Amino acid sequence: xxxxxxxxxxxxxxxxxxxxxxxxxxxxxxxxxxxxxxxxxxxxxxxxxxxxxxxxxxxxxxxxxxxxxxxxxxxxxxxxxxxxxxxxxxxxxxxxxxxxxxxxxxxxxxxxxxxxxxxxxxxxxxxxxxxxxxxxxxxxxxxxxxxxxxxxxxxxxxxxxxxxxxxxxxxxxxxxxxxxxxxxxxxxxxxxxxxxxxxxxxxxxxxxxxxxxxxxxxxxx
Length: 221
Ligand SMILES: Nc1nc2c(ncn2[C@@H]2O[C@H](COP(=O)(O)OP(=O)(O)OP(=O)(O)O)[C@@H](O)[C@H]2O)c(=O)[nH]1
Ligand SMILES: [Mg+2]
Ligand SMILES: [Zn+2]
Known about the structure:
Elements: E1 2-6, H1 11-14, H2 19-29, E2 32-38, H3 44-55, E3 61-67, H4 72-81, E4 84-89, H5 98-106, E5 115-119, E6 136-142, H6 154-158, E7 162-166, H7 178-188, E8 193-196, H8 205-220
Parallel strand pairs: 1-4, 2-5, 2-6, 3-4, 3-5, 6-7, 7-8
Helix pairs in contact: 3-4, 3-8
This protein binds guanosine-5'-triphosphate, magnesium ion and zinc ion.
């Protein structure tokens, strides 16, 4: 089921950067929040569907779908993965902050969720600087975007626990030097995990889930 909410407040005036408070509150409620960032079309929605289909046996999952104006992704995720999805309608705003995340989370009908994925706005710039209250940050970079893209968004890699290199099924058709990209990202952030995969063929998805569950367990301690 997809539920749409509208944020009527002027979010630009309400940005409080209270991510730490939300992180703490969610941890107390037993909820781990996972923020997923990428360029438009990088594969956020497709990745969420493939992860959730495999993870939902073990976790009670919900999805927040941030979208400028449409609910297509919220509907797609809930239809394909079978979990509850809440749309956060951002209108002109190109990122999500923790006030918006908190408001979205309050709308879930299922109050027993233990993992919530947030699909952030398709944007590699300001989502890196706006704390959503998430415990785990994922950045997706896709093969067709090209190898040189890694040099444009260093802050995104600095703020991520995982950089997922998506659309590996298409690597033969694009100039993407995986070794060079991985080394550059790891220089920006030595503790980041860089994992290649394909959300379409599902190659590499099990390994992502294994590493993600290690991080979820870490936050639950
Ligand atoms: N070949 C291939 N295509 C993929 C893969 N993952 C996603 N796609 C395609 O890439 C396009 C964009 O994927 P989405 O999952 O909608 O990307 P998104 O990041 O959610 O896009 P926005 O929400 O619009 O920013 C779709 O046509 C997907 O089918 C992949 O691993 N391989
Ligand atoms: Mg999407
Ligand atoms: Zn923004």
